[in-house]
Amino acid sequence: MTTNRQMVQTDELTKMYRRGSEEIHPLRGIDVTVSEGEFLALMGPSGSGKSTLLNLIAGIDTPTKGTIIVNGVDLENLSDVELSRWRTRSIGYIFQLYNLVPVLTAWENVELPLLLLPLSKKERRQHTETALKAVGIYDRRRHYPRQLSGGQEQRVAIARAIVTDPAVILADEPTGDLDAQSEKEILELLKRLNQEFGKTLIMVTHDPQAASYADRVLHLEKGILREEVRV
Question: Which of 41, 161, 168, 229 is least enclosed by beta carbons within 10 angstroms?
Answer without folding.
Answer: 229
